[in-house]
Amino acid sequence: MNTSKINATNSETQYAAFSDRTIAYRSIGEGNPIILINRFRGTLDTWDPLFLDLLAAKHQVITFDYSGIGYSTGTLPTDVKVVAKDVKDLADFLKIKSAIFMGWSYGGLVTQAATHQYPELVTHTILLGTGPIGKRVAPLEQSFLDHALKPINDFNDEVILFFEPESEESVKAAKASHDRIAQRIDVSKIPSTMEVFQLYFAGGENAAEDKENYRDKLKTTQTPILIISGDHDTSFAVENWYPLTKQLPTSQLILLPQTGHAPQHQNIPLVVNYIDNFLQYTK
Q1: Which of 111, 162, 168, 241 qualifies as a FRET site for 215, CA 20 to 30 Å off?
Q2: Do the Cβ atoms of 110 and 87 come closer than 8 Å?
Q3: Is 138 inside any structural domain?
C-alpha cells in the first residue's frame, strides 16, 4: 500500500497570485481536468474527500475558493458573471486549455455563467443540487433559511441542509460524509458573518434577474450538460428545472430519491458513475 499517495485529505493548498487577489486551490488525480465550483459558504475543506478521490481516479480534480472566501484573498463579487472570472483566471494560471465545469448549489449558478462566458474553455458542464439561472418556480424552503444562516453549523444543521432527515439511510450517509470532511476542515475559514452572506445573496439576486439572458442560452448551448438533483432539495428544488426540460437539447436530468441538497455526498459511487458515463458518452 502506497501511503504517500496524494488524495483529498493530504493534498497541498496552493495559491494562484493575481494583481488584485490570490486564489487558493488544490489539485489531485490525472486526466481531463474537472474544476469544482462551490456552494454558499463552501470552502476547499467542505467537499467530501471520498467524492473527490473517486473522481480523481480518472480525472484531474481541481477545487478552489472564490475570491474573498476561505483561503483566498480579495472580495467575493456580487455578480455571478464576475465570480465566474475566478474559474477562467485559475484555468489560465494552470495553463488549462479545456476543462469540465462542475458546480454545486450557488456554484451551479456561477458554473452556468462560466459555461456561457467561456465556451472555448468548457467541454462539459455538470450541475449538482442547483437550479437554472433566472426566476425560481419553487422558492427556498424556510427550513433551509433557518439553518443555513447560522454562524456555525452543527451536524443536525448539515442533515437538514444537505440530506433528507426523513430517511434513515440518508442520515447515515450524512454522518459518514460529516466524519470524512472532519478529517480536514478549518472551521475558521468558513464564511460566518452576515456581511459575507449578503455578497452571496446579491449574486443570487443578480442571477435571478438574468440580465445576460443565460437562461435562454441554455436552450442553444452546444455544451453537454448533466444535472443531478435530489427529490427533496430545500435550497434548489428540482421543480425549477421542469419548465425547461423539453427545451434544453444538450441537458440530461437525473433525480435521486430520498436525497437532499448534496446528492454527490449522499450517493457518492452512484453519482461518480453517472458523471464518468456522461463524460465518456457525450461529446
Answers
A1: 162
A2: yes
A3: yes
Amino acid letter, residue 28 = I
| Residue 283 pLDDT | 83
Count of domains forming the chain: 1
Instruction: Give the Cβ contact number of residue 154 at 10 Å.
Output: 10
Q: Are strands 60-64 and 122-128 parallel, antiparallel or unpaired?
A: unpaired
Cβ–Cβ under 8 Å, residues 131 and 208: no
Domain that holds residue 173: 14-281
Domain assignment present for residue 7? The answer is: no
Residue 248 maps to a domain = yes
Specify the pTM. 0.97
Contacts of 179 (CB under 8 A, 6+ apart): none
Cell matching residue 148: 443555513
- Reported as a single tens digit per residue, the pLDDT across 163-178 is 999 999 999 999 999 9
pLDDT in the model for residue 1: 37
Tell me if 190 sits within 8 A of 41, measured CB to CB.
yes
Which string of DSSP letters, residue by residue, matches 95-160?
T-SSEEEEEETHHHHHHHHHHHH-TTTEEEEEEES---SS--SSPPPHHHHHHHTSSS--HHHHHH
Query: d(Cα 134, Cα 256) in Å, to the nearest integer?
Result: 23
Strands 122-128 and 99-104: parallel
Half-sphere exposure of residue 61, counting CA atoms within 13 Å on the CB side? Answer: 24
User: Is position 184 within any domain?
Assistant: yes
